[in-house]
Amino acid sequence: MDTFVSRKRRRVSGDQAIIERADPPVDDDNDSTDFKLAILTSLYPSVDQQILLEALLSADGSVEEASKSLAPSGLPSDLPRPPRKDTIGYQSSLTSFTLPRDSKSISPNKKRHLTKNGKTLHLFAPEDIENYTPCSIVHNFLPTTQADAILRELLGEAPSFRKATFKLFEREVSSPHTMAFYVDSLEEEQAQKTDYVYNGSRIEDVRRSLPEMRRVAAIVQDAVNKEIQRRIRDHYPDGKKLKYQSPHEWRSNASFVNCYDGPGENVGYHSDQLTYIGPRAIIGSLSLGVAREFRVRRIVARDDESHLDGGHASRADAEGQIAIHLPHNSLLVMHAEMQEEWKHSIAPSQAIDPHPVAGSKRINVTYRCYKEHLNPQWTPKCRCNIPAVLRCVQKKKENRGRYMWMCHASYTPGQEGCTYFQFAEFDDDGEPPWAKRVKNTAMSMNADNLVENVTREIA
Ligand SMILES: O=C(O)CCC(=O)C(=O)O
Ligand SMILES: [Fe+2]
């Protein structure tokens, strides 16, 4: 699972070599509100995020105080509770929203605030979603029987899913939902267990993709490649792929499967980790079972006031929270501009409509394309001798969009690490300087295998 919380990084003083600066020009305050909210969410999974946020604000940002105010009765009595709506088929907080007639051609990159007074814009129609967010959606994606088949297959797995845990100042905190990680081959399974590092630790429970997951992966792959081409043609400047976006076919070779059991389970605002999927990554995300709300919001640099419209708009309006309704059997494609420029979450809900097969559960499969040249055997290691994490500067205007390799501990709460930092270089196709070497090695290994097989056959 990706890091879905962040924290204030420790600052270390003193001169350092350029490649190991203690104070990289990055996101020093990296969304501490999101982080605090994630802690509160993990402590009070069934309490609405809005209520948690109110508690946090009333407590001047102190998680401890906010937690105290929430603890005795479960809910502070003077906090507003969002109204309950009993709309059939939708999460309760979803409301219909009519966009202006001329809205179709507005690119999501245009600086126009769609949300006002911090309100959430709710989108349902595919054309609105692709025009106003970095995502596109395909409803009724699989034949009905196949959607049910993969849902049943994964519901069979879900009881053994685990919450992602992370250490926070000597305390273990867990994500308010469960998940598991799947890869296609035995070789990949072994490499994942021994080489790959996520939030500073290795994943012990790496699973092999199940038969229906594999069949669906092939369909997802075709659909994602089509959606990528359509996006490039219809939405990107001059109909060209973005800088750092891969020109190669998108291939699904790993997936995280998430399970949200009941309305309270959720995942806080985050961007997916780029370490193994690279810059301008694309993710295919299949939703099954209970319909839930996927929220996205733009990342606004902390020192960038330009979005604030001369003081007339708030930061919340500049971030522009948008809710995308994800019904059963829908494929959401997170396009190349998503992870670097936007954050996403699954919001806790007040009420859900039970699904005939899944009951109270939503299952989500995020199909990912792990890059061979980002296998940890090739990427930089920090001074703790752990593969460095790849991050993109999001919150500081000055270096926004630049990539960097850094010690994982800088972003893992409660963990001590080193101060390793290095700007990451990629060519226009998102390939690091060592990519050619990786290709040559792979080619010579294939040639060796071929010779070995032929020799064996002759003998
Ligand atoms: O459940 C979802 O739709 C999103 C999950 C997610 O963001 C993730 O796995 O990184
Ligand atoms: Fe994610």
UniProtKB/TrEMBL annotation:
The keyword Zinc-finger appears for this protein: yes
PROSITE patterns cross-referenced by the UniProt entry: FE2OG_OXY (PS51471), ZF_GRF (PS51999)
Domain of life: Eukaryota
Region (Disordered): 67-86
InterPro entries in UniProt: AlkB-like, AlkB-like_sf, ALKBH3, Oxoglu/Fe-dep_dioxygenase_dom, Znf_GRF
Annotated keywords: Metal-binding, Zinc, Zinc-finger
Residue ranges occupied by any GRF-type domain in the UniProt entry: 382-427
GO function term, MF aspect, one: zinc ion binding
GO biological process terms, semicolon-separated: DNA alkylation repair
Domain Fe2OG dioxygenase: 251-371
Annotated protein name in UniProt: Uncharacterized protein
Organism the protein comes from: Viridothelium virens (Speckled blister lichen)
